[in-house]
Amino acid sequence: xxxxxxxxxxxxxxxxxxxxxxxxxxxxxxxxxxxxxxxxxxxxxxxxxxxxxxxxxxxxxxxxxxxxx
Length: 69
Description:
The protein is 57% helix and 20% strand. The chain is built from three helices and three strands. It has a three-stranded antiparallel sheet. Strand 2 (53-58) and strand 3 form a beta hairpin.
């Protein structure tokens, strides 16, 4: 379940879509703390393997997305 959720989150971001924290948590039945752990794992992967993109967040709305340099 964890791996599938992380990969779903990563795939959604990689396709250019924005992920809203609260709706993702509700949809997957996870806590916000778990969501942050998933995001951290994805961010670590991006920093090491995808140097042409960066994970960003629109903080007031909790919208996460990947931006290219």
